[in-house]
Design goal:
By secondary structure, the chain is an all-alpha fold. It has one domain. Helix content is 48%, strand content 0%. The chain is globular.
């Protein structure tokens, strides 16, 4: 998955927005940063099914 952070704001619902939202809960124990990065690496382009699977 290619994440594009070139814009100052992200649209709600995009892969990048949801990825960052998931990373934000890592500080509370809701996610592990490494797990998030590994899952993001396995997502195929903008394929919604691979996003849901991971």
């Amino acid at each position: 998955m290619k994440l594009v952070f070139s814009k100052k704001t992200m649209e709600i619902g995009t892969f990048a927005f949801n990825f960052v939202r998931t990373l934000r809960v890592a500080g509370t124990g809701g996610a592990e940063v490494n797990e998030c990065l590994l899952a993001a690496e396995r997502i195929k382009g903008n394929d919604i099914e691979s996003w849901v699977h991971e």
